[in-house]
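Quick one, probably user error.
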């Protein structure tokens, strides 16, 4: 079973993404901001993390930076979840190794594609 973490401050969107991941057979945890996500990561050890942009408390770039600095979370695939096109955030995330983005509103097929690609990338790493 895949362990997923959804980091999203908007409850409706967080709930929707969590339900869609559960439908895929995932065990899903949630966090409403980056600081809560770091606490959750230490407890859960997720296989994939979906991170909203423009979160309160700790932004997405700080969260991803901290994940990449930790040897236990360095290789966990991160998917940016965004409703707006923010080139500066996207470029910073790419610099931190983020390869996938899910644009709100998404279709189930888009989620499926990003999910499978991210997990295939993780399993192909040495």
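Nope, works fine. Designed sequence:
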């Amino acid at each position: 079973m895949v362990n997923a973490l959804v980091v999203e401050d908007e409850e409706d969107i967080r709930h929707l993404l969590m339900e869609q991941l559960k439908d895929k057979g995932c065990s899903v945890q949630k966090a409403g901001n980056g600081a809560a996500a770091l606490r959750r990561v230490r407890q859960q050890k997720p296989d994939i993390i979906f991170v909203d942009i423009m979160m309160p408390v700790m932004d997405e770039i700080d969260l991803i930076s901290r994940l990449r600095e930790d040897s236990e979370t360095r290789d966990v695939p991160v998917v940016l979840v965004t409703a707006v096109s923010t080139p500066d955030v996207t470029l910073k995330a790419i610099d931190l190794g983020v390869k996938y983005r899910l644009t709100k509103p998404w279709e189930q097929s888009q989620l499926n594609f990003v999910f499978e690609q991210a997990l295939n990338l993780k399993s192909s790493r040495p």
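The chain has one domain: 3-118.
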